[in-house]
Amino acid sequence: MIFKVVPFFLSALFFLFYTCAYAQNIHPDEAIISRYALQLTDTSPHEQKQNIFLVKVKTGDTVFSKSYKNLIVLNPAAGWFIIKADTLPQQFFQKVFPAGNNYKLNSSFFVNKELNRNIQYGFTLKITDSLQLLQYLSAHHINILSSYKGIFFIIKTELSFVTDSLIHKDYVLSVGLFAQSPKEEMVINDFDNSVNSINLFASKFPGLSSSAITVSVKENLPDTNDIDFKGRFRYTPNISPVVTTHATTMATIIAGGGNSFISGKGIAWGSNITSSDFSNLLPDENSLYKEYNISVQNHSYGTQPENFYGPEANAFDESLIDNPTLVYVFSAGNSGALAPADGQYKNMHGFANITGNFKQAKNIITVGSVDSFYHVPTASSKGPAYDGRIKPELVAYGNDGSSGAAAITSGTAAAMQAAYAGLHHDSLPANALVKAILINSADEVFNEGPDFYSGYGNVNTYKSVQNISTGNYFTGKSSRNSIDSFPLHIPPKAENVKISLVWDDVPAQPGTFTALVNDLDLELKNKTTGAVYLPWVLNSMPDSDLLLSAPQRKRDSLNVVEQITLSQPSAGDYMIYVKGYNIINTQAYFIALETDTTGTFQFISPVTADHFIAGNKAIIRWNNTYHNATGKLEYSLNKGVNWNLISNNIAISKNYYNWQSPDTTAVALVRMTIGNDIYVSDTFDFCTQLSPQVILNCNDSVRIRWHSIKGINMYIVQQLGDKYLQPLANTYDTSITLKNNPSPFIAIAPVFDNNRKGLSSYTFNYTAQGAGCYINNFLADLTSDNKADLFLLLGTTDEIDSVQFQQMIHNDWQYIGSVKPVTTLNVHFLYNALFNGINTFRAIAWVNGNQVISNEASIYFFNNIDFIARPNPLQRGQDLIILSSALTPGTLTVFDVAGRKLIEQNIQNTETVIHTSSFASGIYFLVIYDESRQKIFRGKIVIQ
After folding, report:
1. Of the candidates 829, 861, 893, which is a domain's last residue?
2. Same domain, 118 and 100
3. Does residue 96 share a domain with residue 18?
4. Are residues 742 and 708 in the same domain?
5. Overall domain count for the chain
6. Which of 368-372, 513-517, 591-595, 730-734 has the least mean pLDDT?
7. Composition of the chain by helix, strand, coil, percent to 5
8. What is the CATH classification number for the domain harbouring 633?
9. For 474-517, what is each residue's pLDDT tens digit?
10. Which are the contacts of 210, defined by CB distance < 8 A and separation ≥ 6?
11. pLDDT number for residue 91
């Protein structure tokens, strides 16, 4: 008998109902039947689909699912499926029911107890016929929020419309309850570029150009005016209108130009940067990636933990199939202490809390976090994925969350693409190859082998770029029952052999219990001994002890990543086998390789470009293949002539040492002695960061000054060019005057005797430092004994002969005193000849015979009176100003000599303006009343 089987879609996982059933003392089979079987007695005719069945298979998953791979699997262990078939052979089934359409709904519909049928929610649809859907939605006045490829749509409507009508349309394949609004997953407050060997990568690949690479940051909009992105940000139609610090930080980690400071230099610092709004949780359209040449997209955001393979996960898997050189990197989330609300890991605290069903996709890279000492924080979201797959795949540094960890991985992927393109005529590597090398190059951090906390390890940027550059990989295509073989020779003293198989799997049915479609198998065989080594497989049963148990070697039937490691293998010839266990058509794959050698050691930090802050804590890092060894760590400040002890008993296996660096300015080395082996680091330096000050900012010149650093004789002044900082001038002084400078952004760094540039200052805009042309500010305050305290703040005393002070008297500036010589930047002058009303002053600095005039500053002086009218007399049409000594609410009235009231207005401030343009020349009377209409002031006004 021949079955007609077509893809169908389900997001409501069996284990959800399995758990609920036992909680209510309902048999799990009854829970499945009540949810998915069609109740013909109370169901409308349009819901009856005669060839869709809920079945329980006699033989279980072993035989049946191999023949019908695209079926919806509710629970393979219990043998429950939903199929479409014209006829059903009796021998296969224990139970058969006509199926309803609830299989199209994801589990969020059933675990959310607060859903209301009459309230509007967001929904994600996967459909087959966009024309029919658009006509149907239009007829019901339902707006589309976003779409992807014409088969994924996000809409907003009432729950009742979805469950009573929409899911019964044949062209609707699956419906997901749209997740809550995405949120940024923490702001990064610090950055340690040695945790992931980023500094080592920068030292070993200084000339690597990533200018042909474009990286997209999908979230809010980075600050496009940030100088670290100058000349490299590309606008697209998809950008968010909201600018955030978080987005700016992510873009900086990935591709910052290092213009602001050393921490502003990203991994792929030459890449172009663009942005896409994360209010749309679907992928961007394929045409956008192609038009803007986007090859990496970073996703450092999340929703809530979701344990199902929904339409969004399906869409991202499909997008990577459509765009084979595009890499998606997602943060795992910061919900590591939470328990999922659905799925087989429901209520298990500390597991399966990846934030968002889109992160359940197979072909993406999901990244958790580690701190500076390789510990996985409690907050970092943990695996497994909903179906037991290994999530996150990787971890990276993220002291305050997984956002920065994802950005580090995205930057590393972009650098790998740039390295590959430089060797392959500008073509880009397949995304599965990038993923394979990232995983295979990662360092162990949590446990030996993969785990659900750190995945396959901590991202190593240097190794990843090195391995893709040296071609440590194979590629091939597999089909059902095929066997591909690759020879591998393992030399003597080899250890830590690591082999990773990765492929981009075709999208699974939304809602299927296991997402794997094409199942490949990796094996390694010793040709001499015949020993066969299988991949490491984790126990994914919903038990916390089992989830934390060590991996076992066995066939993997869940993951699209399979990894074999041999810590100390026998030397000889081996064969790597890739077997097509269960494949639709053909499946491309990639194998990444790595082998260490016994007794090796390499410093990660310090390296050539590193600067250690003098007198501060520093971390020395290394990689090694010594076993149970201790070492002696020393440093030298005179090129290795003399060595100073740091510690005599270093545990080499720890791979780092916390050090309080000496308070000195010098070029330095460190060395590690292990037995008779000595390893010396690259040259680095101890330095103090400069804090330059702008002391003079005139129209044609700017003068900048900084403190001297002991042992430094020369400084380099840099300015911001079209994209990056460029040398402007060298000076042996601790100040410099720049004339007609084209760029306002300046940074200054010390230069050691060997022309090594030390730690640069922060880059600053000299026009925004509050500096003026000799005069920075002028203020006037009234003292308690009724004197004017005039305060002049100078930027410099250089070339200033004297300072004069003037007062405005009868519309003319009158000299009232001076200070000479000028020896301080803060010049004070006391003056006591104040008159009632507004007293206005200014200062003049005499510079080489020329005047530099300050701003004006005023004092209100009342001399024991409550109100003053100024000016008086005044010219016809001139405004009259009434000054109050205190904020006293009242009413102001003006009468002419005949007693007629001309003006009445409220007094609400200490300064009230009366417009006199309608007044004739003559004498007028001013009367002020308080709130109780008591007269509190009377005066005469003369208009000339």
Report:
1. 861
2. no
3. yes
4. yes
5. 8
6. 513-517
7. 15, 40, 45
8. 2.60.40.10
9. 999 999 999 999 999 999 999 999 999 999 999 998 888 889 99
10. 255, 268, 269, 270, 271, 414, 415, 417, 418
11. 66
State residue 109's pLDDT score. 79
Q: How many CB atoms lie within 10 A of CB 807?
A: 21
3-class SS of residue 576:
strand
Asked if pLDDT for residue 23 goes beyond 80, the answer is no
Who's near 638: CB < 8 A, 6+ residues apart? none
Q: Which of 479, 68, 747 is nearest to 81 (CA)?
A: 68
The token duo for 524 is 């390694």
Q: Is residue 2 part of a domain?
A: no
Picking from 470, 502, 531, the residue at the C-terminal end of a domain is 470
Give the global pTM: 0.84
Integer Cα distance of 815 and 290 in angstroms: 71
Phi, psi at 577, each rounded to 5°: -115, 135
Both tokens of 244, joined, read 């955030």
Using CB atoms within 10 Å of the CB of residue 36, give its burial: 0 to 12 exposed, 13 to 18 middle, 19+ buried.
buried
Q: Is residue 9 part of a domain?
A: no
Same domain as 851, residue 889: no
Q: d(Cα 218, Cα 239) in Å, to the nearest integer? A: 8
Q: What is the DSSP letter of 46?
A: G
Same domain, 359 and 392: yes
- Residue 502 · residue 435 · CB < 8 Å: yes
The answer as to whether 70 is a domain residue is: yes
Chain-centroid distance, C-alpha 58: 50
In a domain, 1, yes or no: no
Digit-coded pLDDT (tens) for 302-326:
999 999 999 999 999 999 999 999 9
Q: Which two tokens stand for residue 484?
A: 């591909």
Range of the domain at 136: 108-177
